[in-house]
Design brief:
By secondary structure, the protein is mainly α. Helix content is about 70%, strand content about 0%. The chain is globular, with a radius of gyration of 18 Å. It comes from Glutamicibacter uratoxydans. This is TetR family transcriptional regulator.
Amino acid sequence: MSERKNLTQRRKAATELEIAKAAAALFARQGIESTTVENIADQAGISLRTFYRYFPTKEESLAPLLQVGAEQWQKTLRNEASGSLRERIDTALATTLDASAFEAGDSGTAMHELLALRQANQGIEDVWQRVNTRSEHVLAQLLQEVEPDLSQRTAKLWAAAATCSIRLALEDWAEEEHPGTLDVAALARENFAWLGAGIN
């Protein structure tokens, strides 16, 4: 891939993330129904035409923000070199889902509010489910890269167990009244221990 194409993709990803942050801030402040695409475009400092170049709906604009965590955890897993695959996944869960990311504060509160919104809006719930499905597929491919002898079926099972463990932990966390009251990493690891128990 050329350096120019890499730069273009990085700029595209950065723009998408800025739009997602603008949308999340507006949704949290004034509600989903009261927020228009025009509001999001103004907040992000882009034209309406540019918004629609990236996203078909206001709900879809949240996807890049929801994907950030998945990308971070996959990167951590790729760099985790010691132990069995089960142990490496568990370590990556503990490292990525560090408690500081889920405490009250700008980033923790924003993500808490964003995930809480999905309970009242089917559009955001659909985006959340698609992000998790995509993350699961990417993770299965990653696992086969780091473990070349792993069968496709086993890689998919590990990916499903890990992704579901994180999703359920985050959804439980979002139902708490305040960020910081639930140990997300511990819950995700407990989920993974149960869901991955039968995978060899």
